[in-house]
Amino acid sequence: MKKILKEPLVHFLFLGFLIFGYYYLTNKDSNAEENSIVIDNTEYDYLLSLWKKQWQRDPNEQEIKAFIDQYLRQEVFYKEALAMNLDHNDLIVKRRLSQKMEAVSNDLNAIIKSPTDDDLNAFYNKNKDLFILPPAYSFKQVLFLNDEDNLESEMETTKTQLNNGQDIPKARQTKLSIPNTWNKSEATSIYKTFGDYFTSVLDSLPINTWVGPIPSGFGQHLVYISKKEVSEIAKFETIKPYVEKEYQYQTELDMQNKVFEDLLDKYPVKLTADKIPSDIKKSYQN
Amino acid sequence: MRPLLLTITSLLLFAGCKDSPKETPVETNTTTEEIDMAANIPSNPLKEAYFGEQHLHTAASMDAFIAGTRLTPDDAYRFAQGAEVMVNGKPHTINRPLDWAAVTDHAEFLGEAYSLMNPDAPGYDSEAAKAMREAPDLATALTVYKKYVLDALAGGNAHPDFWQGYDAVKSQWKVNIDATEKHYKPGKFTTIHAYEWSSAPNTANLHRNVFFRDTNLPDMPFSANEGPSPQELWDWMKIQEAKGIKVFCNPHNSNESKGMLFPEVAMNNKPIDETYAKTRQHFERNLEMMQTKGNSEVVPQFWPNDEFADFENAVSLQKYFGRVFEKHNFVRYGLTRGVKYYEELGINPFKYGFVGGTDSHNGVMSNVEEFNYVGHHGMADETAEGRSKNEQDGEMYNRDMNPGGLTGVWATSNTREAIWDGMHNRESFATSGPRIKVRFFAGNGYSTNYDSYETMVKDGYEKGVPMGQNYEGSESPDFMVWAIKDPIGPNLDRIQIIKGWVENGEMKDKIYNVAASDDRLKSDGTVTPIDAPVDLKTGEFNKEKGDPELMAVWKDPEFNPTQNAYYYVRVIQLPTGRYNLFDEIRNPRVKYPDDTKKTIQERAWASPIWIENKL
User: Do B492 and B436 form a contact (C-beta atoms < 8 A)?
Assistant: First the structure.
């Protein structure tokens, strides 16, 4: 039962029933007068309010006559057009109606998909790849500029010294303003400072030893990685608001597609034109 | 089962109501959660440069909506943080996420945007709203825009007929506020509450972006419909200040201002006086140096001696609306005129720092990288072909537009308050897109050689003032400049200091080369040209030439202690491919007209330091 309740099509039918029922109840006696155009108090107030919104004042009698005229004109032509089936296969009518229907499905989503913690938990468990934390690295780096004298030998000497436990040379501390020590830094923020290549090779470097040179946009780096925290999945509790955001986004897309597919089932599709490429044709056959 | 049905029914009834949008209560207090979060945020007294967007439109700007943009403020903030969004039907991501961002939708049509986007809102079904939503192509969109917006404006109506009044404005403002709050992650990603006041009397662009420091916000923004003169905007800002709201604004596109952004008389035809100058300086803090519709610093015709003036000048904008270039329209003129006003009135009305932005109407925050450009104006420039051929209706040729600029702010931490304060103190700099960082100090006793970056910066603050401030010493100041390249861009070419002053009533400015890469700065101040060509087949820049970092301490050789002046910094990068080059490489059938530059020298501008002698 619960599953049925979640079916968008069921909601559609239910809504249809409600709307139909409402019209049935309110328009019971008017069947005989189907053709008449009624401007009752409600309709009049509505027309009046539209007029006032546009002109920001009360209309005089002439103006009242004008908007009633306009309304009647529209209704008469509208009804006659419906009677003559002019709405059928009209591109603009089609587009408008289908948009209305899509809007209804979006509204539906907002109405029925207020998620419980269980929903969120289930969604989280099912879509863990959405909640992978980017890899994070704790590392030190020492920078050499490409145009330094004796670059190669300088780097080798410094690497040996660092691996023997010596401090980072004073002249290379915070060189070019770039910090030497990076703690638990996410790949995205490393990318912002060091660029693409440097970030991408970190994962392949050994830990607890000075290695390099690794090039970046600034020059050559010696790098010492002390810890790699590779792509762990964030804990549900810590990212619940984010899970909820993703849940809303995903369910809205799902709902749109689901409604479309359900309705598609209702309307068998027959692609008889022989000019449609066959691969495309196949994709519409279940 | 029953409770669920009841919920559905009642919600349906609610959704069907044709009531006007509700009054929107606006939060007035920072939540305790935010304060807790703020306590754990690392703070650096020497400040870090945070890059972000301070000028962006989403579907909540009606012109953007009509052009086809459907991305919301929420989407824009997601994009800024690296999420994929659909731009004109194609998935797109920013190359590098931002540190902070502000959505600045046009206040003028916020109400219409609400009706356009919310099927439950009154006005949604109006003929005009329908036409705007359904415009299938550029030509239709433009017709719709003319019919419902421009003609309404020309007829003296501030709004198309489906505008539902101020409640609708408040409703959309609330949507923008909610998105801005939702994405604020102190220490990681900052969002700033903001909007654009878009006044254009006689098509002179006087637009200003307005920024709020915290969640103490007005219930509705003040638009050009309520007051088209900047003085009316300031009057409103004064009222907000009296309520404890902290607010400033940044003008943009002085290049389209028909001489009105840096005027001799105010819009009420009265000469600029002391009160005007004081108020303007109090509320207006930065100029947007560059954005998609051009670089406003200088143009070659008025600054023929500036060899770098010919850069993203958007010259074709002169063909529309009579927005012909005049010297009055450019930032360097404005700054110098400000010094002259200081001498005339005792206060400088044009005391501006610099910011950069995109003004994208696609909802894509700081999508500034040339190789990642997908246009900024919906259907008008979404394809390479459209960019090469179309014009931006009524504004300029698409190929004269550029991906836009970026703002760097020196701030102690990545929080809303620190970023806002940084901009408010003008400790901000603009770039034409790259993440070049630049520092600028004026003081006494700086060394030309520091053993570390930290000691340099510490000295910078201890012995002087940073960009955006007045140098108060009596001796000739040491100007210390430092710049570092964008990690994914080419090396730097040079650093220049630009000085402006007034001499015998005459406004003057002069450019000094103060540092050049590869030891090219000669003793006479000229620089040996560098040959660092871009590979026109691949779009790759030269990786050998130039330096990643430049630093100098400079003294003005013509310093005169009685002279009032400003000094600002321009950092020039080595050449890179312009977006049209990448468009042509990727789309062999697309050919831009020959007048389109294939390569450019991107740059950064650090906010000025002023010398204001006691009068």
Answer: yes
Selected for mutation to probe chain A from B2, B5, B12, B86 (highest A CB count within 10 Å) is B12
Place of tokens 């709020």: B212
* DSSP 8-state symbol, B362: S
Q: Tell me the pLDDT tens digit for each residue of A121-170.
A: 888 888 888 888 778 999 999 999 998 999 999 999 999 999 999 999 98
Interface-testing mutation among B488, B491, B530, B550, with chain A (most A C-beta atoms within 10 A) = B488
**At a CB cut-off of 8 Å and minimum separation 6, what does B108 contact?**
B158, B198, B223, B224, B225
* Residue B171 identity (one-letter amino acid): S
At residue B188, φ and ψ (nearest 5 deg) are: -120, -50
- Chain A residues whose CB is inside 8 A of the B484 CB are 176-177, 218
Q: Which of B12, B15, B488 sits opposite A195 (nearest CB)?
A: B488
Nearest CA among B200, B112, B111, B122 for reference residue B154: B200
Q: Judging by DSSP bridges, how do beta strands B478-484 and B437-443 pair with one another?
A: antiparallel
Contact by Cβ (8 Å): B15, B117: no
- Which tens digits make up the pLDDT trace of B427-484? 999 999 999 999 999 999 999 999 889 999 999 999 999 999 999 998 999 999 999 9
* Residue B85, token pair as written in the block: 């969004």
Which portions of chain A are predicted below pLDDT 50?
A: 1-2, 30-32
Q: Does 1.20.810.10 match the CATH number of domain A133-229?
A: no
Q: How many CB atoms lie within 10 A of CB A237?
A: 7
Sorted by where each begins, the domain ranges of chain A are 91-131+235-286, 133-229
Q: Note whether ipTM > 0.85 here.
A: no
pLDDT under 50: residue ranges of chain B: 1-37
**Residue type (1 letter), A139:** F
Closest alpha carbon within chain A to B453: A177
- pLDDT for B287 equals 98
Measured between its terminal Cα atoms, the distance across chain A in Å is 26
The reported pLDDT for the residue numbered B554 is 98
pLDDT of B17 reads 36
Residue B100: enclosing H or E segment and its boundaries?
Answer: strand B100-101
Euclidean distance between CA atoms B288 and B209, whole angstroms: 9
